[in-house]
Amino acid sequence: MSTYLELCQDMARDVGIPGGGPSSVTSSSLSEEENAIVRHIKTADQDVQSRWFDWDFLWSEASITAISGTSTLTSSNSGYPSSAGNWKLDSFVWNKSSDDYQILEYMPWNEYREEYKYGSIDSDTPEVFSVKPNNNIDLYPTPNASVVISSEYWSTPTILSSDSQVSAIPARFHRIIIARAKMYYAENEDAPEIMVSSLSEFEDQLDKLESDQLPRQKNRRFSSAQDAFNFVVRPI
Fold first, then answer.
1. Both 147 and 95 in a single domain?
2. CA–CA separation, 135 and 233 (whole Å)
3. H-assigned helices in 103-236
4. What pLDDT, in 10s, does the model give residues 188-206?
5. Residue 140: CA count within 13 A, CB half-sphere
6. Strand partners, 64
């Protein structure tokens, strides 16, 4: 596992900056090159995290309490995840811990709006939901009780900001951050030899990360597929 500062220092050594690299990512006395490294590592980490919305390392669960008489779930609802980037649309369950649980059916917003949001709106146990363009959840019928809705989602990328902070990317793949950052460095410094080696490492690390952290991709890195029915190849 490498912290933000350690990633910066490792990159500094890789590209040959004297002195061991930044002493702190927030120091006001860094050289121009050290500041560039701090910036490149942050950008590279964000870039890799943003490459796919459904990385396994961004997956999480939520338990959101609906408000009786209110159809929309927002940040004002208890348990609503502030970091929710993309919802897992087949994971919404009303009152999951009860024998009377209800699996909610997803409907695209435009269709849902025309079907359920005009005229008189029923109030009862929700059966259908949609995601509004602002990423809030809307339920139909309007809940008639304050009950917990269980769901899964993928978080938005976490931005590195402090020395001890650790990227959400699994530790064994942290080299991909340095490889991507060195590509930025090579472009800015007109260093083709660094670009060539960094691009090769980045592509190798990206294939390993995607195989490990994207749904149904692990068989890409096994010599023989372990589960041929759970095997999807994503184009590069």
1. yes
2. 28
3. 109-116, 175-189, 192-213
4. 999 999 999 999 999 999 9
5. 20
6. 149
